[in-house]
Specification:
alpha+beta, BirA Bifunctional Protein, domain 2, three-stranded antiparallel beta sheet, 18 strands, RNA-binding, EC 6.1.1.11, ATP binding, protein biosynthesis, SerRS_1_N_sf
Length: 427
RNA sequence: AGAGGAGUGGCAGAGUGGUCGAAUGCGGCGGUCUUGAAAACCGUUGUACCGCGAGGUACCGGGGGUUCGAAUCCCUCCUCCUCUGCCA
């Protein structure tokens, strides 16, 4: 959520940056914010004055009663009625203005970083780096992962359909082992990189949804538990970052680095066709997430550090990959700068997004009221960042396709200590 | 899940309708004393919003209500503790 004071101070810059997202009416939207906030201040001032008068009067009445001047007290009481009426009216006006302001703020996305290219869709993302020396030359008759999955009997989509529904596969045999291996490998790497492992709830309340920005904008993306006002998490970012909601940390406690594994649940409403085939898009999937809370001056260095961490993972998995700088149109609502990682899935000849690493600057921290206190006890909003490290199913898809051989599917070296086998074999 | 109890400043803990943003203790910060430290003593020590400032307003788990006036009374929700039940 933007800070109105910042908007006023950097009006032209913010407008220009928001236009990179394709927000053509950015100027009007920001102007509206400022004028609403102006009204809010004015109304609050008036209300405060009325309340000051009421408080004063109430004190006097108390004194009069104490000293036995009943008649005077009753007379003074009569004066309060009008003040009360005004206070009620102004109070309602203020609440309404505050709500309008919040509504607006909730609807305006984060200001893109200066390096974000303008653009409408994923086609306009900037390819920062492509490392494709691991791209395999597949033999004729190489199969897409969904065919390999049935051939090797490692995931059962039909069973998942039966037990839950489409998009909830059941991993089994070496498939289940491989998923568990990846999770452990990713967590171990995160720990080596200095992240503290946490295992958060996978169900969150409304406040948490607002804190990281899933609510109100993306309500349709989450599964709701409507009888208790809770949601299944779409990513571990939500519970892990919300640990620090309403928290003031000491400056020397930064950076805070947490990592956690959770299943993630996404409704993916309206998804259909080839890109939901097999493991390409699921309603439930496993992911290890890394989260950092840092000093504002350090956040872009940390973003690079996190990108490097993810890059190491895909490299170690021996997958061809590329790194994209997301354009304004593809940038997430809450993010200022995002790098996506895609791995090449050689049989379906597609790049699959497996990680998204973002700097949210103060956008989340402002909603979360997540601040740090410096040596002089000055408080300021911290910066938050997170990244997938990594999402499992698409990595699995690429591994299956790229590593298929006549004898079976080769398991990358780094995972072998975790799987206990180096080849996925037919049943 | 049922019955009972409780939620107050960083922590502990008073306050049951009127100068209460809130006693007191601990902790923190500054100072005196000391070669240094401890002890002792003195002072200071919540957050947010509005205002150039003086200052004002709000906050005693959250929300709503009664009242001229609410930490204090009422309703509701949440959380914690104890007992009973259930369960991995």
């Amino acid at each position: 959520m933007l800070q109105v004071a910042q908007v006023e101070e950097n009006f032209d810059l913010f407008v220009e940056r928001l236009q990179k997202r394709g927000l053509t009416n950015a100027a009007e939207q920001l102007q509206e914010l400022i004028s609403l906030d102006g009204d809010r201040k004015k109304t609050q001032q008036q209300l405060d004055d009325i309340k000051a008068k009421s408080n004063q009067l109430a004190k006097e009445i108390g004194q009069l009663f104490k000293t036995g001047k009943k008649d005077e007290a009753e007379a003074a009481k009569a004066q309060t009625a009008e003040l009360k009426e005004q206070s009620k009216t102004l109070g309602e006006a203020l609440t309404s203005l505050q709500n309008q302001l919040l509504d607006r703020l909730y609807q305006i996305p984060n200001i893109p970083h200066e390096s974000v290219p303008a653009g409408k869709s994923e086609d306009d993302n900037e390819v920062v780096k492509t490392v494709d020396d691991n791209t395999p030359k597949l033999a004729d008759g190489a199969k897409p992962h969904w065919d390999l999955i049935s051939e090797y009997d490692i995931i059962d989509f039909e069973l998942g359909n039966k037990v839950t529904g489409a998009g909830f596969p059941i991993y089994k045999r070496q498939g289940a082992r491989l998923v568990r291996a990846m999770i452990n490998y990713f967590l171990d790497e995160a720990q080596k990189a200095g992240y503290m492992e946490v295992q958060p709830p996978i169900v969150i309340n409304e406040d948490s949804g607002y804190g990281t920005g899933q609510l109100p904008d993306k309500e349709g993306q989450m599964y709701g538990i409507t009888d208790s006002n809770l949601y299944l998490i779409p990513t571990a970012e939500v519970p892990i970052t919300n640990i620090y909601r309403d928290v003031i940390v000491k400056e020397d406690e930064l950076p805070i680095k947490n990592a956690g594994y959770t299943p993630c649940f996404r409704r993916e409403a309206g998804s259909w066709g080839a890109h939901v085939r097999g493991l390409n898009r699921l309603h439930q999937f496993d992911k290890v997430e890394i989260v950092q809370i840092v000093h504002p001056e350090k956040s872009y260095d940390v973003l690079q550090e996190m990108v490097a961490h993810v890059e190491k993972l895909v490299k170690n998995l021996e997958l061809p990959y590329r790194i994209l700088r997301l354009c304004g149109g593809d940038l997430g609502f809450t993010s200022a700068l995002t790098f996506d990682f895609e791995v090449y899935s050689a049989a379906q000849e597609k790049w699959l997004e497996v990680s998204s690493v973002s700097n949210f600057e103060t956008f989340q921290a402002n909603r979360l009221k997540l601040r740090y206190k410096d040596a002089n006890n000055k408080k300021a909003l911290a910066h938050t960042l997170n990244g997938s490290a990594l999402a499992v199913p698409r990595i699995l898809a690429a591994l299956l396709e790229n590593n298929q051989t006549a004898d079976g599917i080769r398991v990358p070296k780094v995972l072998q200590p975790y799987t206990g086998f180096d080849l996925i074999t037919r049943p």
